Amino acid sequence: MDYENKLVLAPMVRIGTLPFRLLAAQYGADITYGEEIIDHKMVKLLTQYGAIITFEVGVINYVLVECKRGRNEYLGSVDFVEKGTNNVVFRTCDQERNQVVFQMGTSDAVRALTAAKIVCKDVAAVDINMGCPKSFSVSGGMGAALLSKPELIHDILTTLKRNLNVPVTCKIRLLKSPQDTVELARRIEKTGVAALAVHGRKVADRPRDPAKWSEIADIVAALSIPVIANGDVFEYDDFQRIKIATGASSVMVARGALWNASIFSPEGRLHWEDVKKEYVRKSILWDNDIKSTKHTLKDIIMHYSCLELPEGKAVNKSETLADLAKLYGEEKYYHFVNENRVLLKSIYFDQRCHQNHLLVKFTTYCKHLFIQGGFLVANY
Ligand SMILES: Cc1cc2nc3c(=O)[nH]c(=O)nc-3n(C[C@H](O)[C@H](O)[C@H](O)COP(=O)(O)O)c2cc1C
């Protein structure tokens, strides 16, 4: 993975699922971070039987339950599914294999490595979130809590770096003084990370406080690894502005992309209503989780309009992707995608039963063009 001159979609909880990442990539994002996933979601210690590894802690026998990786033949995706609940914790696909970053929340090197090993063959890089100020993260010793524990940072990053074959990075916030941030960044660089993303705000700062690009510049000047600058990029021209102001190798954008993912397009932004519709179609195509789809739509609507208006209320009331398809006039598309999924899956399985590998390969290829390409379906 190359971190020079890249436009990067920032990690965003409940937003950065597969459809949103592909949307950003379609408009020009080079690297797309997934939403933060807590390592506990990938690996669990349970006091029950029937799992992969058992070991003793004190007098109790624990089992390590890992998320199961599988190809979803319906969608053409790779799913990591929580055992027991069958909830999809992380969904990706071959199309984004070389640009998707798996971001993780962790407070423990061994657990982080166990979780990262489950996904590392399907992603371009693994990143550790060291900036989240939310109490859920900090109280669990994750996110911004790590910023005051350089030994633990070192432990986590070196453990991942030594044992994974993909680049390892982390994303930090600014510390109280520029000197402290630079010192921490230097320690992080020594762990061998491939790049460092810096959100130019301090832990106590609010999103409305201006990002401190000059303090990102101090870090860039002190390091030789690529720095990814993040904070207050709202227009395409801001990519260049922040690069010049900080000297950073690459630029990461969160809210600017959430509100209009076509921010990455050098040809200029599309109308947000069109981008939103494209997001709905991609959510249908990849059978995105309804809660996350609604959450993303509500964030977009709140920015441009108001949730109390009819569209916002209708999104709130929607219970399924079919409801959203109806709301956005995408019913034909919804039925087309779902009917053809069933058809392609049945051909695929039929042929697999006959063990005709060439036919299976051909059908998989057609399916790839047909379903994953999205454009064929989207133009329907
Ligand atoms: C809705 C939302 C969710 C976020 N979730 C994450 C996350 O999962 N991991 C993370 O490191 N930062 C997360 N952030 C922080 C952003 O990645 C980014 O650092 C911050 O918003 C500053 O960038 P911006 O000024 O371009 O918005 C989130 C931000 C937003 C707005």
UniProtKB/TrEMBL annotation:
InterPro entries: Aldolase_TIM, DUS-like_FMN-bd, DUS_fam, tRNA-DUS-like, tRNA_hU_synthase_CS. One of its GO terms (molecular function) is flavin adenine dinucleotide binding. GO terms for cellular component: cytoplasm. Residues 9-280 form the DUS-like FMN-binding domain. Its EC number is 1.3.1.-. It comes from the Eukaryota. Catalyzes the synthesis of dihydrouridine, a modified base found in the D-loop of most tRNAs. Belongs to the dus family. This is tRNA-dihydrouridine synthase. It comes from Acer saccharum (Sugar maple). The lineage of its organism: Eukaryota, Viridiplantae, Streptophyta, Embryophyta, Tracheophyta.
